[in-house]
Amino acid sequence: MPNQPKTPARQMRIGDEWYDFDLAAKAQGSERAAVIRAFIDWYIRRPDSELPERPEASYWRKAQTDD
């Protein structure tokens, strides 16, 4: 049997900001999913959770214009 993930996939609709978010997450050395999970933990007040840090906009905005 194939490897089954521990959590089911969730869906939501996000516009082109998704690509900016990817660049911003990578600027922090992270992935979108990890940033979203950290934000959700902070938002629902899980113990010891922290609001994820945001990168300087100059990094990922520059990456947009380099394309």
SS strand fraction: under 5%
Number of strands: 0
Radius of gyration over alpha carbons? 14 Å
Class computed from helices, strands and strand pairing: mainly alpha
Q: What is the helix tally?
A: 3
Keywords:
mainly alpha; globular; 48% helix
Q: Explain this structure to me?
A:
It is a single chain. This protein is mainly α. The protein has a domain at 27-65. It is 48% helix and 0% strand. It has helices spanning 17-27, 32-43, 57-65. Helix 1 (17-27) packs across helix 3. The longest helix has 12 residues, at 32-43. It comes from Streptomyces tricolor. This is CopG family transcriptional regulator.
Topology:
Layout: H1 17-27, H2 32-43, H3 57-65
Helix pairs in contact: 1-3
Q: Quick summary of this structure?
A:
The chain has 67 residues and is mostly helical.
